[in-house]
Amino acid sequence: MEKLEECKHYDKDNRYMAATDLCAEIMKTNVQLEEGMEKRICSAFISHLDDKSLDVQGNAVKCIQKIAQRIREKNLVMIVEKMAERVVEGEKETRDIYSLAIRSIISEINEDYAKPMINAVHPRLMKGLGSTDEVREECLDILAEIFKRFGSLILKNQTSVNKDELMRVIPEQLQREKLSLRKKATNCLGSFSIVLTQKQLQLLCQLLIDRIKKSKTKADSFTLLQCFGQMARTVGSKVAQYLSDIFPLLCHSAQTLSKDQSIDIDNEIAEACLSTFESLVRKCPRDIVPYIDKILELTISLMAYDPNYTYDENDDANMNDDEDDGAGWGSDFEDDNAGNEDDDDTSWKVRRSAIKTIEAIIASRPELLRLFYDRYAKAIVQRFKERDDNVKCNVLEAFQQLLKSTSAASGAQLSSSVELELRHQPSLERTKSSTDALGNLVPLIIDGLIKQLKSKNLKVRISVMHTLAQLAQALNSNLEPYFDRMLPEFEKSMNESQGYDLILDTLNILRRLFRGSGSYHSYQTNFRRIEVIIQQALNHEYSKVVSEGLRVAGQFVYVLKSAQGTIDPSYQSVVPTLYNGIREKLVKTDIDQEVKQCSIIAIANFLTICHNQLNASQIQEIISVYNDRLQNDLTRDATLKAITKIAQNQGGQLINLSNLGGLMPRLFDLLHKAQRTIHLNTLEALIAIVSRYGNQFSAQAGNIMKEIAPFINDEDLQAASLALKLASITLQIDSNSNEVQTLVGRACNLAKSPLISGSSLNDLLAFFGSAGQKSAVKDATIGQLLEYVTIKTQSAASVVAQIAVNGANKNSFQQEFLAKIQGQGNDNLIRGALCLGEFGKLVDLSGVPQLIDKVSALFKNSNEDVKTAASICLGNISIGNPDFFLQRVFNLVDQSNAQEKYLFLNTIREIIIHNSKCLQLYLQKLMPLLIEHSKSEDEQIRNVVAESIGRLFIIYSRYIGNDLEQSFKSSNPYEKATIVKSFKYAASKETDSIDLENSIEYLLKAIQDFDINVRRNALESLNAIVHNQPQVVRSDIEKLHKMVVVETQIRPELITEVDLGPFKHKVDEGIPIRKAAYSLFDTMVEKIPDRSDCNHITEIAIKGLDDTAEECMIICLHLLGRLISWAPAIVASNMDLLVESFEKQFQKNAKLSGQAQGSDKAQNIMRALMRVVEQLQRTSEVEGVSKFNDFFKAYVLENAANKALFEKIAATASQAIFEHF
């Protein structure tokens, strides 16, 4: 009550504060206000809108905007009604304040208020459109806000506004004489197009086209052309349907410029046309494709349009004198338009719009990267001499976008792929990669950029440094020859007093240059000057500069190292200065968090190179500081990585670290934390320490074993693998510890897991090999391992063989295995056969009498698992001595009957996997056997055949090509599917690319086969080829793209309904093929993004979010994440569709997450969704996109569970800081 009275106080400051306090009180409580009190508060705020003080008026607008969500609907509608009346009929002086207040409320309220709000305001606004020009302007602004905020609702409810009347009234305003009214009408028309149906939009476009054709003045044409630009920005995808009518009009209008003089209205018209092109390129990149060449031709020409000025070679010469006139770097005498010869010349608008359109094309069409370098890159570089500083910055930003795309392409390893693709072609026919093309332009680029660094305009210099930073990212190793020219400018930038951008960019460039490979001669020659720059950074007042300086210091020492891995004696004089500078930051505890982390990593880099220049106490101090930093949650990850780096010291001498033992209690504590990342980092650190400094830990070996034992299980095989590595190392230090048997027991349990394979299996075998050498495996444990051996857990047999080979009783093991295969009981036969095979793989058993006969006798057993074990055994023992066994094995094949031949497939597969080179003499016998069994109805047999043929193709592609070609043409679907699948295994990096390329035609035909298994196998094989040898499919990528798109569709004919009694269940047999198709797109974007149609793939990925299969949705989300990294502008252009799909999935899976059935599936989808949302949220191209911002606020920030998940994912992503090193 008191504050309400204060709102009427005579003092404006009191009124201002009273309104502010009243608003704060309302926002503080969640309790609904009493209705009478609410009316009084609303009246008080409305009265402030008429206040004499502008500050009070502005504050009232803010307060009404804030409380709009907290007051009753009818009171809010009443407020807006009154304000709308005052806009239309009120005083001129307060009209704009009321208009602003209405727009503020509309922007804040939720969609529940939309209908009554529109019903209350719309009639008054329509009345206002028939009033004076000033009233019309405010009404158009309010209508534009309504259409933008509630466009989707109005589109669904066609009667909420009188569209027919608006279609008549708004275009009328475009013909008014007042320019500001025309501009408001143009903006409103752009927003109005959001709520129009396709038919209404067509009528509007036709109306504008007819008017442009009939327009009598250029001013009228300009206004109408601006309308197309606004419509393209708001509903580009809808307008794209009329491009065939609009494009010629825009193109003609943009080319009416005079070559001899700059005419303002012509420049305005050209700017409007080019801006429309830019919007169309960004909003509908696929639809604009047929017109891209013409747009590029036009924009490249117009970006140099400057009829009032003649450029020559000495345009930048005046910049060289900046230092002499005292107005160079750090000067206060700067102007954003410095260098403009004619302030009345508006041709800069044309050049700016042209270069912005070029930038939009580069961002949205990354597949045209090579074309840009071939035709347009040089022209853009030559425009660095642009005389208008603002346009010059636009030119530099466009070139930065080109460099970003080049860096992304290099990240996809395009250069190496291109080289592989072209290695068989004559040199004159080779096409350069985008990185090579950029490298050829470096002299011209550096020359242009260094000239611009002498500009008096700070904004230009910052833009130049941004460009150099991007260039260093794309071509770090190619810039070393130009370092002497760049260094003086870097030194100047370090003294910049107007902001920190130049300093940060300088340090960023240096760090990227030092990370490059190749010659370091220029850096080493100038090491003293670089040292000064680093010292300036380390002593700077701004923490981000200090952090970047630490990164540079940590990288700089690698530039100065000798061939022995330590610092070269010629540069040892920098050691004390750098050490003291880094140490000062390292030991401080009350400094910025990022500085702490960077100092931890920097001193680790320094220590690995310069340790021989430090004394023992200095090194001990560093380790002591690390010990303290391990206790802090925020510095622990950096410290673990630093310790690992120091201990490993790859390629360098062993550093004298005498106090590492003190770290152990801290590291053991970290293993007890409930965070997987910490576990992995800690285990890696322990491996590095114990493997290099094992002599310090003989007393602690038992404790280490005790701490790592819990990680040896199949719940996390990555952690288990690291723990096993560490166990093998500690076993060498102390094999008598009581904890050894604990480790052996845990490893024994892991051996029976069907999940263990690959590197984790190799680490398990290495551990048991070490344990066998130390006689640490007891007989009871070996017996237990033997019990675990089955067809499904062959890893246990590999473990037993490792123990046998490395132990003292090798012969007794051999005899035991032989006894088992001649004993009784199928389980014993299987164990004996598998163990004997693994043993024979490691030991030559050719001296064992009648071994093949004993093994092949098991083929007569009635049990299929025994037969399979015998065939695997036969293959493995052949690997031990192929010269002795192979001929005998193939004799058995010849002697076997048709029913027995399939048993030899496992034998052959084992030989192929481990030593396929020994099979050349037997290919003529082998291929018919494999081809025959490719027709088997048993899928397991076909899988073995596919793998065998694929692995043979890697080495013998020239020998077996004809056989495969015949099978491709087979009418047997099983045979064709098996041969197609074999290329999944054949697509190795070692396979001859020409032979692989000859098979592409058949694989593309297989995608269109009638059999679903053939199609799926073809997609999976092509996926493997694109992943390992992408150059093979580059020329067929368009054809492949079209075929894969078809396979992403849900096909009703592949969905069957199964009657399960109480309910019916749908089975979709198309899921595997859709999954394969989406996976192939994912690999294409990863490996050959410059050839992939990323615009279309983005649409497909968004559509795939509605797929009924969880696995397809997850792949599509992963694909979107990859597209965001490669071409964020393309994803941003599809934001409306993407947000709509996200909202649907968030709503659906949020409900399922709380249910017992389907909860895991929903949670998986939510995590994958949130990863993409997090990636979008930190993408610059999405900043300011209201559709995404509204979604993010409603579904993430205002939902506690989603917000917590987002923060967890964001925290994980933020750990990328360490990649700077």
Automatic annotation (TrEMBL):
<protein>
    <submittedName>
        <fullName>Cullin-associated nedd8-dissociated protein 1-like</fullName>
    </submittedName>
</protein>
<dbReference type="Pfam" id="PF08623">
    <property type="entry name" value="TIP120"/>
</dbReference>
<dbReference type="InterPro" id="IPR011989">
    <property type="entry name" value="ARM-like"/>
</dbReference>
<feature type="domain" description="TATA-binding protein interacting (TIP20)">
    <location>
        <begin position="1033"/>
        <end position="1193"/>
    </location>
</feature>
<feature type="compositionally biased region" description="Acidic residues">
    <location>
        <begin position="314"/>
        <end position="345"/>
    </location>
</feature>
<dbReference type="GO" id="GO:0010265">
    <property type="term" value="P:SCF complex assembly"/>
</dbReference>
<dbReference type="InterPro" id="IPR013932">
    <property type="entry name" value="TATA-bd_TIP120"/>
</dbReference>
<feature type="region of interest" description="Disordered">
    <location>
        <begin position="314"/>
        <end position="346"/>
    </location>
</feature>
<dbReference type="Pfam" id="PF25782">
    <property type="entry name" value="TPR_CAND1"/>
</dbReference>
<comment type="similarity">
    <text>Belongs to the CAND family.</text>
</comment>
<keyword id="KW-0833">Ubl conjugation pathway</keyword>
<dbReference type="InterPro" id="IPR039852">
    <property type="entry name" value="CAND1/CAND2"/>
</dbReference>
<dbReference type="InterPro" id="IPR016024">
    <property type="entry name" value="ARM-type_fold"/>
</dbReference>
<keyword id="KW-0677">Repeat</keyword>
